Amino acid sequence: MTFAQYVGDGSTGIIGALNIVVVPVIMTLAFLVFVWGVINYFFLQGADESKRAEGRQFILWGILGMALLFSVWGVVNILLSTLGVLPPA
Fold first, then answer.
1. Mean pLDDT rounded to a whole number for the chain
2. Which of 15, 37, 78, 86 is the 20 to 30 Å CA partner of 2?
3. pTM score, whole prediction
């Protein structure tokens, strides 16, 4: 097995596993953190200000996690396309 086969492209090898399995799982977790914060902030703990602040923190960290993941995923895919590992979209 060559290094190029081991690393793979957008759908095979290590890069394929990251693109197809790992990144969507992490994105789902970040989205669920965001949704949990929204539910806590608006529905479950509407009267308790400390619980609303906790919900606000979940919303903030969920948004930051999704933004960071999207940006890193984009930069990695741009680098892979530039290096010729991934075919251009």
1. 81
2. 78
3. 0.71
